[in-house]
Amino acid sequence: MPFADLLSKLSVSSGPTLNITAKKIECEHSEIEQVMLPLLRGRVFHVTKEENFEGIRRSGWIVSNQQARLAFTPRQPESSYGCKRGWVSLYDLSDPTDGEIKEALIRHWFLRTIRHESPHVYLIVAESTWSSLISCKRASREVGGKEFFIPFVEAWYPGDMPLELVTESLVVTLRRTPR
User: Fold this and answer.
1) pLDDT digit string, tens, across residues 99-133
2) For residues 124 and 16, what is the distance between their CA atoms, to the nearest angstrom?
3) Cα(17)–Cα(9) distance, integer angstroms
C-alpha cells in the first residue's frame, strides 16, 4: 500500500481510529524555510522519516528510543537531554520569537537538513497536550550547556507518546532541481 494511502487511513489497533488526513507538500530545498515555517509556527510537532512512520503507525506510539536523533539535527549525540531521559523529541514553535527561531535555524539548521532521500512526516501534536511537555527553558535551568538540546525550539514529551495525541500530519517531499 502506498505511503499516502497509509496516512489517509491512519488507525491504531489499541485505540480509536484517528481521522488524520495527510497534507502533502513539495518544495525545493532552497524553499523549505519559507514554505514550512508559516505552516509550523504556533504549533508543536515531531518529525520522522517516511520509513520510520510505518512502525509508529502500526504500534500507535512515537517511541522515545526510536528517536535517538532528531530527524533534522546532524550529529546530535545519543546522550542529549531528552534522549537520556527517554523522552520523545519535539519541536515547539508555539511561543518562540522570530529572533529565537532564526537563531535556532542558523545554529542547528533544524529545517534545512532535510534531504531528497525520502519524504519526512511532520506529526502535529494536539494543543491540549502542550501543558504536559518539558520545555527547553526547563532543560536550560537543569543542565545549562552540559547536555545537548536545541535552545528556544526543542521540547519533549515525557516518555513514549501515544499517536492519538497527533491531530494532523504533513508529508514533505523535496523536488529535485534539474541540473
Assistant:
1) 998 988 887 777 765 666 678 899 999 999 999 99
2) 18
3) 9
Three cell numbers, residue 72: 533534522
Give the residue extent of every domain in the chain.
3-174
Q: CA of 59: how far to CAs of 53, 56, 142, 156, 168, in Å?
A: 10, 5, 32, 20, 18
Which tens digit of pLDDT belongs to each residue from 131-160? 999 998 888 888 877 788 888 999 999 999
- Average pLDDT value for the chain: 79
Q: How far apart are CA 34 and CA 144, in angstroms?
A: 31
- Please tell me the pTM assigned to this model: 0.80
Take residue 108 and report the three cell numbers written for it.
542547528
